[in-house]
Queue: 2 jobs
Job 1
Amino acid sequence: MRQKIDALLQEIAELKAQKLQEVEDIRVRLVGKKGSVTKLFEDFRSVPAEQKREFGQLLNVLKTKAAEKIEELREALENSASSNEPSFDYTKPGDRFDLGTRHPISITREEILSIFGKFGYAVAEGPEIEDDWHVFGALNFPPEHPARDMQDTFFISTGDNPILLRTHTSSVQVRSMEKMDLPIRIVCPGRVFRNEAISARAHCIFHQVEGLYIDKNVSFADLKQAILLFAKEMFGEQTKIRMRPSYFPFTEPSAEVDVSCNICGGKGCNICKGTGWLEIMGCGMVDPNVLKASNIDPNEYSGFAFGMGVERIAMLKWQVKDLRHYFENDVRFLKEFETVV
Ligand code: DAH
């Protein structure tokens, strides 16, 4: 027994392998079911009791050495570039990785832009950090208008033309009128900022899409038609719109647009608070003062503008009752939009 153990230890110490298959053969030869080390363990049963302790220890050493050697040979081959065996198993299943999904606000923004894209509107963008002129002045806000108030606007600097975070994407209208050739037909998506307490219905950061069309002979009928087509594309063919007179400094006349409630079909439910209508945007004919501020002659050109909140459209479309879901990014919420293209 001792001789056999010594002979095997000697053999193990001298083992070499060129290929992983050879290592596997060695493993089978030594510690496989009929391997020589395994065999010695069987012989061990007939060792006299007083020698069991000694041989038991020797056998354990042998077994450990065999296992170490096999592992050593395998590792050496796996790590060596010269090995012509693949260093990993191609047949193993690949690592699974989870795909992200698009955020519902992005989905909604893209849908709005693509609908207007079909109507021929180009996408225009502008800075989030703006000056007073582009957010208020050029849009016909009188100097003392409450929207300029510190309560609403995050100011970055004070002075003649303070720097601030834009409170609406209407500022991109002004930047576009300054630099684009007429006619202009654009939609302007972007983030806006208002100093509001965060609640289910309000947030200090949200998203808007502004629209602007300026050409010769643009009328209120054109505005109404554009918005009706948009509402049908966004909320379904059966959707109706209505316009309520309103006021914005940059449009005259101005209106607020409601769509027929897509939950109850206009009969009245708790989503539309029994009215059958849901407010989706503000709009109007571009005020001549706004055209003048950007050096466009109001006697030659007219236009319409509209502005909507992306979160609001998304809430109506998917009946999300709390705006904060869009900002918390709980994956369970986001996953609900996995199947929405
Ligand atoms: N800028 C407005 C707001 O933030 C939305 C708006 C209303 C934009 C009417 C327009 C418009 O272009 O014509 O509440």
Note: The longest helix spans residues 49-79.
Job 2
Amino acid sequence: MSTIISPSLLSANFLDLKSEVEMLNNSEADWFHLDVMDGVFVPNISFGLPVISQINKAARKTLDVHLMIVDPDKYVEDFKKAGADYLTVHYEACTHLHRTIYHIKDNGMKAGVALNPHTPISALSEVIADIDLVLLMSVNPGFGGQSFIENCLTKVKDLKNLIKEKNSSAIIEIDGGVNIETGKKLIEAGADALVAGSFVFGSENPTKTISELKKL
Ligand code: DX5
Ligand code: ZN
């Protein structure tokens, strides 16, 4: 299977979101990565439900929604209505993670769990068989354009082992500081999906940059 490329709209031009969505529709991107930040779980505020609903009207690909918010349980139905296909919550933001995972699945979405750079893979051992995706943060969440934390490569290998051991079908997605160089190492380590924000939208030709990531 070729690597799934999920460009993060956090680095898109919000004044021209429709063209950015069209560009992704016509590119080799597989998913749209949508970062929701509440200013509490992370020290930044991005966009929320109304923006995602609008994007959903124009997007012709899977919506990969990354919630960086406290108490995500409260909004599961709302994100389903807004068009989320994958709904990813942070391990660090969920007291009753197992309940939240089934809340997402019962609403007809794929359930993802994200880990901050300091959270060990072992934290997922009791839920790995229940989830569809693990999002490993390779930067501290909150902002685009940060540098890749190399320790993530070891975590990808550990996660791959855990997935095998527990007979899980979870996809491994990496988010933060992804470019051609880090992308290559991540794929070698076993990543299935790559999120890229500033590397795609900050490049001269985002469509071409997406193809280059896709070819890795
Ligand atoms: C960061 C977000 C990322 C962000 C990645 O908290 O979760 O999805 O957009 O940006 P880059 O690719 O620029 O590191
Ligand atoms: Zn993200």
Note: The chain has eight helices and eight strands.
